[in-house]
Write a structure and sequence with these properties.
alpha/beta, 334 residues, 2 domains, two-stranded antiparallel sheet, Rossmann fold, 11-stranded mixed β-sheet
């Protein structure tokens, strides 16, 4: 699958490739039933046009459906699609748009996906918005939760909760250590019969479908290099822990993961760290060129500048990031 593109990647690493390409075109080049996970955060259907591109609410669902059909085709039967969608209001009204829920319904009813589970990403560091209804008139609370739809191609996609267990609370640790002191097995008022096995140590607790992940990065390597080189960072980045949760949960090492709206390529970086094969698509040459900063762990700022400028020269410069246990190297493959 990695060799099915005639176009060269902008850059590639041990595990993945980044393409300046319309992802709808890129998806059509990928074989049927070959991908384990597609995870992405599309440009949201916002009222104000953003510089990274976003479709009007009225046409947004139809626009996104084009990608949905191709994604379903390329996914393995055990594969998954995870889409992060932010909420929005109707123009000029303090009334919520239903676009993200229409995406959910139509992806299931028209394309044939299953809703494996709905997730909600709570970003406690999100600024109050929209200004008109929250800050000025003060008739709505701030919108700090995104809907994250986990779609599956079959009823039983690959998934393993054991990979994403949360650390036990101090109370639970005490219960496991001394059950008789902290817990008595009994039937609860709800009708649940909690047995002695409740205190078994399973290595951690099962996480809920509410993901509380702040998006407050301020000094990451990507942002640091953007600031030093006076390059505008991508304005709509999701935190690494969001794709990390689903990549760990829904894939194994060497599985194939695709991000069709990669932006600053957070997904590719997480996949590289977790040793998943990855492909990233983005229409913006500038944003994708800057995304290489995420991979330049041991490179001087002068070299970073030269690398970035080289990537800007051509959409197919084909640079390779070569990793070693102690040494990082960067090679021009033109």
């Amino acid at each position: 699958m990695f060799d099915s593109f005639q176009q060269k990647p902008l850059y590639f690493s041990k595990f993945g490739k980044a393409y300046v390409m319309d992802s709808l075109v890129g998806l059509k080049k990928i074989s049927d039933n070959s991908v384990d996970l597609v995870i992405t955060s599309p440009p949201f259907a916002l009222l104000r046009k953003k510089e990274y591109g976003n479709e009007d609410q009225n046409v947004y669902v139809d626009w996104l459906m084009q990608f949905g059909y191709e994604i379903k085709r390329v996914l393995k039967e055990t594969g998954s699609l995870v889409i992060d969608l932010g909420g929005s209001y109707k123009k000029g009204r303090p009334v919520r748009s239903l676009y993200n829920y229409r995406v959910l319904i139509r992806f299931c009813d028209d394309i044939g996906f299953n809703l494996a589970e709905e997730f909600f990403w709570h970003n406690p560091s999100k600024l109050p918005s929209p200004i008109e209804w929250v800050n000025k008139r003060k008739i709505r609370v701030k919108d700090s939760v995104n809907t994250v739809w986990w779609f599956s191609k079959s009823d039983f996609p690959k998934a393993d909760v054991k990979k994403i267990l949360s650390p036990y609370s101090e109370r639970m640790k005490k219960l496991i250590k001394d059950q008789e002191k902290y817990y008595t097995p009994k039937k609860r008022p709800s009708g649940h019969n909690i047995s002695k096995s409740f205190s078994k140590n399973n290595g951690g607790s099962i996480p809920p479908n509410l993901l509380q992940i702040p998006n407050s990065e301020s000094n990451t390597q990507y942002l640091r290099f953007c600031k030093q080189l006076k390059i505008k960072s991508h304005p709509a980045r999701f935190p690494e822990k969001l794709p990390e949760f689903f990549i760990k949960y829904l894939t194994d090492e060497n599985d194939i993961v695709i991000d069709i709206f990669s932006g600053s390529n957070t997904t590719g970086k997480v996949c590289e760290t977790l040793q998943r094969k990855w492909i990233s698509f983005d229409l913006s040459h500038e944003y994708l060129a800057a995304s290489v900063f995420r991979f330049l762990d041991s490179v001087s700022i002068d070299d970073v500048f030269n690398i970035y400028n080289s990537l800007l020269k051509n959409k197919e410069t084909n640079y390779e990031l070569i990793y070693d246990s102690t040494i990082f190297d960067f090679i021009n493959k033109e």
